[in-house]
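Researcher: We plan to redesign the surface later, but first we want a full-length starting point. Tokens attached.
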């Protein structure tokens, strides 16, 4: 199967090379601007080009400061300058300013990650309105945008993550910026969720040497070394490289938690001329960490919050470390055809495996295997050993033809593209036979033998394997038309998607059924009929420039999302569909400041939810709707002061479904006594707080990036529901953070000392729900957020 997958990717590359050969034969012009600007810009000297502020080429990864006309990449001169963002060209595939796009778009530049000492994607996207993460720190995070779960993360405009709800671990050592596109973006990305898209733009080789090493030391035995090396190869004009990476070792404020991870990301770019550019990248990430399963949200008495210390864990010291390994290769190839037209081909292949052998929550009260009455069961949590092995691969490729022309008195920015995705996974879910109860108020540890974890690997209590392959082919066309002060965007996409799953399982018993394994699941998939679905995703938007600094916009869009959700017969559920209306205003009150105010409504149908008491079986949850208001402000207030400010109001609920049964919300109790499980009508969506926001300010007391610098702010949220059944509430919070740094020249090299204080007010709250490892436990466990934490950092740059 992998041979077939790579053959499709090679075919796309061959098509691009055909365009490239034709274009080279047609070259008769001198070196041109890759963004379609005229040859006059190319006449500038290298020094002038290094100071240019024009926009980089369409769809190409670029730095927070726009590229100059020759594609020269340089580091921003000052931290304040690095906060200024005008484009999101990697995600939008257009070199059009954000202010002129009829969509709410937020860009978090790398300097924000440096100021806040961010090492994970969850903390990065907290700087955008309406984005809430479900942080499973050991394996990454899941994200909710505008109230809807977002199962996809994109990397340089190609899908990085799988189409399941399993989180994806992302290290920020090679992240240049993070782009958040709100609302349906299926027209460009195909399989995307209606709340929005998160696109990671990676660091690219610079045209001047850079050598940087950072060392972090923080609370709870946190140690992290990070490096970033880039230089051009003088012997080969147009050839440059960059190598980023990190090694992290950390403990935790929680018992039995902590671990380590290593990350390496080399990049090579070759640009023989401004007409042609080829960039090849790779990533290798390995992690060994104990995944946190959290605290119970309720007990035998119902969904009452158990008054437990946040440091308490119900795992054991001999619980094996969970593993996560991922490698990735990708390339980006651009060939200009003339001054205004070009072809871009992108390719990404990723392979990963996560394996977790742990203690899991088996509910409160009398255990299924127990006989007799135990009075301690009212405060007793049952535990079983559980083993999950998740192997997945992801291939994505596309080819775009883009260009600019004038017709009928208007300027056109045109895009036509084809893309292909091939995604698959093999999943093993086992657990052991025996029960290891623990009193949540008076825990006694050391009662679980090492053999119990092997018991779950062989699946003595239960074994289940599944194998899934999904493929999607798409064609899209988009035209961005400018009539003086009026900008019109129209486009459409057509998708053909297919999905197949096979499954094998065995029930409880003293001895495992050896026949229930991955090979049988794959064989079952090959026999299973393939579900094929098709769909159109149109989009239309308009922007009107009221003033040079102020514009109004409106948009209408639909999305199409085949989902990896199946009924009891392993038949795929219908694709998710969504529709959005959005209106708003965009302003640039100061040259380096960008503000967006958006009003939206999204309706989503065919939403799949897990059927409790089963493994891998889902049901539809009716029609969901999210209405809201968002405000985002980012940039420079002065040449010394920067700001990030955002606020989101979200009203997200189920508007069409069966009425819920509050007495038996999960359907686990006797239906003759408590009634059958109901639906979700009127329930609020999980991870959708009514009010949330952030304010973060920085001030530079020095000059030219030297001297003292300080900043801080507040992140706040109201309460939100922790599950779609609305059985428990995640409490609201207001958290204070701050930092101070000092940069000096030492023997011609820059040295920066920085101290970050997180959760200064030591507020107790939760920032995650475990719906990955204990998704059959009801209600789900909540994972506490970090208390007051201090992180010191030293940075050496030369």
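Model: Full-length starting sequence:
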């Amino acid at each position: 199967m992998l041979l077939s997958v790579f053959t499709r990717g090679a075919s796309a590359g061959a098509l691009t090379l055909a365009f490239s050969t034709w274009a080279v034969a047609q070259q008769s012009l001198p070196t041109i601007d890759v963004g379609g600007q005229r040859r006059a810009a190319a006449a500038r000297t290298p020094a002038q080009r290094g100071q240019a502020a024009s926009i980089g080429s369409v769809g190409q990864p670029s730095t927070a400061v726009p590229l100059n006309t020759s594609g020269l990449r340089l580091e921003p001169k000052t931290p304040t300058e690095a906060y200024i963002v005008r484009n999101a060209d990697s995600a939008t595939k257009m070199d059009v300013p954000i202010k002129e796009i009829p969509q709410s778009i937020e860009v978090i530049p790398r300097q924000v990650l440096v100021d806040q000492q961010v090492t994970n994607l969850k903390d990065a996207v907290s700087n955008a309105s309406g984005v809430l993460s479900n942080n499973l720190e050991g394996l990454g995070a899941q994200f909710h945008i505008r109230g809807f779960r977002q199962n996809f993360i994109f990397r340089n405009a190609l899908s990085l993550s799988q189409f399941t709800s399993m989180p994806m671990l992302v290290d920020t050592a090679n992240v240049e910026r993070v782009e958040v596109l709100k609302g349906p973006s299926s027209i460009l990305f195909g399989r995307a969720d209606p709340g929005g898209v998160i696109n990671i733009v990676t660091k690219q080789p610079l045209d001047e040497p850079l050598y940087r090493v950072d060392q972090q030391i923080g609370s709870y035995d946190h140690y992290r070394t990070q490096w970033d090396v880039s230089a051009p190869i003088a012997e080969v004009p147009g050839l440059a490289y960059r190598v980023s990476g990190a090694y992290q070792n950390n403990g935790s404020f929680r018992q039995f938690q902590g671990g380590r991870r290593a990350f390496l990301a080399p990049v090579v770019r070759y640009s023989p001329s401004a007409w042609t550019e080829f960039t090849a990248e790779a990533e290798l990430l390995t992690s060994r960490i104990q995944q946190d399963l959290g605290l119970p949200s309720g007990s035998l008495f119902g969904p009452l919050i158990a008054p437990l210390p946040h440091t308490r864990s119900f795992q054991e010291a001999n619980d094996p470390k969970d593993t996560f390994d991922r490698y990735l290769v990708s390339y980006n190839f651009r060939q200009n055809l003339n001054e205004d037209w070009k072809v871009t081909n992108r390719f990404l292949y990723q392979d990963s495996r996560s394996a977790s052998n742990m203690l899991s929550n088996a509910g409160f009260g009398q255990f299924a295997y127990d006989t007799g009455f135990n009075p301690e069961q009212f405060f007793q949590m049952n535990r079983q050993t559980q083993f999950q092995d998740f192997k997945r691969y992801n291939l994505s490729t596309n080819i775009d033809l883009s260009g600019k022309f004038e017709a009928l008195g208007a300027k056109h920015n045109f895009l036509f593209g084809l893309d292909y995705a091939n995604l698959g996974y093999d999943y093993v879910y086992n657990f052991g036979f025996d029960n290891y109860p623990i009193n949540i108020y008076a825990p006694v540890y050391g009662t679980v033998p090492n053999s119990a974890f092997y018991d779950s690997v062989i699946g003595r209590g239960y074994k289940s394997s599944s194998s899934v392959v999904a493929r999607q082919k798409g064609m899209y066309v988009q035209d961005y038309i400018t009539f003086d002060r009026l900008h019109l965007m129209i486009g459409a996409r057509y998708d053909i998607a297919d999905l197949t799953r096979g499954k094998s399982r065995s029930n409880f018993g003293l001895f495992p059924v050896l026949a229930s394994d991955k090979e049988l699941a794959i064989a079952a998939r090959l026999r299973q009929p393939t579900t094929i679905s098709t769909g159109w995703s149109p989009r239309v938007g308009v922007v009107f420039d009221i003033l040079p600094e102020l514009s109004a916009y409106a948009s209408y869009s639909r999305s199409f999302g085949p989902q990896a959700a199946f009924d009891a017969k392993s038949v795929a559920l219908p694709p998710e569909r969504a529709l959005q209306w959005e209106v708003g205003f965009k302003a640039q009150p100061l040259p380096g400041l960008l503000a967006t105010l958006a009003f939206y409504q999204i309706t989503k149908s065919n939403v799949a939810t897990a059927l409790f008491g089963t493994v891998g079986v889902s049901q539809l949850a009716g029609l969901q709707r999210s209405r809201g208001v968002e405000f985002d402000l980012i940039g420079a207030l002065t040449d010394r002061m920067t700001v990030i400010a955002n606020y989101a109001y979200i009203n997200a609920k189920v508007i069409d479904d069966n009425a819920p049964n509050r007495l038996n919300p999960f359907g686990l109790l006797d239906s003759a006594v408590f009634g059958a499980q109901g639906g979700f009508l009127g329930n609020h969506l999980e991870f959708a707080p009514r009010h949330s926001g952030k304010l973060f300010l920085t001030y530079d007391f020095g000059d030219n990036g030297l001297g003292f610098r300080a900043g801080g702010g507040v992140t706040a949220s109201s309460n939100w529901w922790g599950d779609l059944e609305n059985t428990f509430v995640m409490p609201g919070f207001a958290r204070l953070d701050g930092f101070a740094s000092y940069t000096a020249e030492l023997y011609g090299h820059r040295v920066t000392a920085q101290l970050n204080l997180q959760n200064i007010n030591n507020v107790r709250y939760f920032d995650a729900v475990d719906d990955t490892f204990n998704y059959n436990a009801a209600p789900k466990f909540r994972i506490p957020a970090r208390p007051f934490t201090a992180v010191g950092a030293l940075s050496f740059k030369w």
